[in-house]
Amino acid sequence: MKHRLLGAAVAGCALAAIGAGPVHALSDQLWIGVPYETVLPGPDTDGSTRERTLEVRITHDNLDNDVPAGRLSVDASEIASFAVVSWPANCLPETPTKAVCDVPAMPAGMEGVPAALIGLRALPDADLSASGTVRYTATAGELSAADTETRITVGNGPDLGLSQAPWQRGLTPGTDHTVRATVANNGNRAVERTLLWVYSSYGLRFKERHANCEYREGATGTGALCVLDEAVAPGQRYDLVTRLGIGRNALYERFDHSVLPYSDAALEEARGDYTWTRGAGPELDLLPVTGQRAAADEDDVDLSDNYRAVVLDAKNSADLKLTGNRMRGAAGDTVTARMTVLNRGPAWVASLGAGSPVAVVRFQAPAGTSVVGLPEDCWTQPPSEEGPSEATYFCGTPIYLHDKASYTFKVQLRIDKVIRGARAVVETIRDSELPVERFDPNLRNNVSAIVVNG
Questions:
Q1: Structural contact between residues 446 and 427, judged by C-beta atoms closer than 8 angstroms
Q2: Which of 21, 305, 358, 261 is nearest to 165 (CA)?
Q3: With contact defined as beta carbons under 8 Å apart, do 193 and 202 qualify?
Q4: 201 near 9, Cβ under 8 Å?
Q5: For residue 302, what pLDDT is reported?
Q6: Which of 109, 188, 238, 257 is the most exposed place for a label (fewest CB within 10 A)?
Q7: Do the beta carbons of residue 199 and residue 353 sit within 8 Å?
Q8: What is the CA 257 to chain-centroid distance, rounded?
Q9: CA 401, 406, 411, 417 torsion: positive or negative?
Q10: Of residues 433 and 326, which shows the higher confidence score?
Q11: Which parts of 344-416 fold into alpha helices (H)?
């Protein structure tokens, strides 16, 4: 259901369709970034229609390369029966629905450039069941991108959307910070009330807890559900301002938010089976707006811009310490090797985007032993001619470790032969999705050992 958008605490929002071209001689690749789908509002109550903008960007992978100026080809002929196109100044129309646009060069170090801002407006008599596709190709020097497309439909109803706040890095723990976004109704019907969902990760704190919001504490952060009573008319925009405290334990943080037209069903679904606590501070209000009041349960016609996530990285570190243990036993016994990753802080560590382990531990079985039981979060790399001659084992922590928290892997070893002082090195690896060396100031204590009969 559409309302489930509000419950995605750490899910990313898929906003772009990307086309990949052939690999360049200098190991580069050209990409086209466009919305996957856009809904054009049908006629307003006065018969007029509202324009929507398709933003097209061109990017490439290898930032060491210079990419020359290029060309973007756009074909909107499939939507000509129900929409009209407005071309920007950098696009030369071949027909009313086809154009070639000049794309700026990308010097070394530049990841991408804006390619076109294309206006689309539904015709006043457009059929609400109409749909079609806008297609794009792009070239720049020897690079080319494969066909990419945006699906265009027509719909009546409100269309709440959030602007994307920029990623913010280098924040100082112990300070306050403000995240700003713009909320707009891009549809052709008013919204009577708005349901706002907000999430701040564990290293952040809401500076205010509003009386028209209810809050839930979770292991990775705090969520809030707010009911905003002011009507939002088509074309109305307002600022959404959230004051956050950057905790002493902050490091890799996220702030997520989403909006939907309010309904009792949407609120109940967003609450789920969890317990929420109402705030006691001043209400979170919007400036009054004018416009026709919509039915309270009317669906949002386009959910592609209702959810945004903002990265908030703090200047902080977290010292991981890895410890093994010693075991004793006779031949044929099964013993437990314990490897513990302790986060000594001061920051907690979380991979809330990629969902990667905070740390991955690598080890082999001590001499004279065999691994006979691995936890679910461990895996095996068999021996090979190119790699180690013995099996290598890896164990990944959860995607977060609070400051002062630890996580222990319990691996079952069978003693095949008693060898006094048999030991195996255990260490965190450096090629995970969340590189330990980026946040850990002391890698010397990231190595330990498991010892059998020593």
A1: yes
A2: 305
A3: no
A4: no
A5: 66
A6: 109
A7: no
A8: 12
A9: positive
A10: 326
A11: none
Find residue 200's DSSP bridge partners. Answer: 222, 255
Greater pLDDT, 289 or 78? 78
What is the C-alpha separation between 21 and 19, in angstroms, rounded? Answer: 7
CA distance 435 to 433: 6
When computed from its CA atoms, the radius of gyration of the chain, rounded to whole angstroms, is 27
Q: pLDDT per residue over 148-171, tens digit each?
A: 999 999 988 888 988 888 889 999
Q: In this structure, what token pair is assigned to residue 418?
A: 């008693």
Cα-based distances in Å from 394 to 241, 273, 321, 449, 450? 44, 36, 17, 14, 14
Tell me the Ramachandran region of residue 110: left when phi exceeds 0, alpha when psi lies from -120 to 50, beta otherwise: beta
Angle among Cα 174, 179, 185 to the nearest 5 degrees reads 165
Residue with tokens 């001659």, as numbered in its chain? 389
Q: Positive or negative CA dihedral for 125, 128, 133, 134?
A: positive
Distance separating alpha carbons of residues 173 and 36, to the nearest angstrom: 37
Q: Which residues pair with 394 in a beta bridge?
A: 362, 379
d(CA 200, CA 207): 11
Among residues 225, 237, 289, 295, the alpha carbon closest in space to that of 261 is found at 295
Amino acid at position 253, single letter: E
List the structure tokens of 109: 């170090």
| Burial label, 429 (beta-carbon count in 10 A; 0-12, 13-18, 19+) | middle
One-letter amino acid of 31? W
Query: What is the three-class DSSP state of 86?
Result: strand
Task: Give the integer Cα–Cα distance in Å for 395 and 377.
Answer: 6
Q: What is the average pLDDT across 350-373?
A: 95
For residues 288, 289, 291 and 294, what is the CA-based torsion angle, rounded to 10 degrees? -60
Task: Please state, in angstroms and rounded to a whole number, the distance separating the CA atoms of residues 305 and 55.
Answer: 13
| pLDDT value at 134 more than 60 | yes
CB 48 within 8 A of CB 57: no
* Three-state DSSP state, 448: strand
Q: What is the pTM of this model?
A: 0.75
Distant-in-sequence, close-in-space partners of 7: CB < 8 Å, separation ≥ 6: 197, 269, 270, 272
User: Which residues face 19 on adjacent strands?
Assistant: 32
The token pair that represents 144 in the structure block = 């080319």
Q: Which domains does the chain have, with CATH numbers?
A: 2-155 (2.60.40.10), 160-314 (2.60.40.10), 318-452 (2.60.40.1530)
Residue 362 CA: distances (Å) to CA of 264, 368, 428: 50, 18, 6
Q: Could you tell me the two tokens for 326?
A: 């010693």
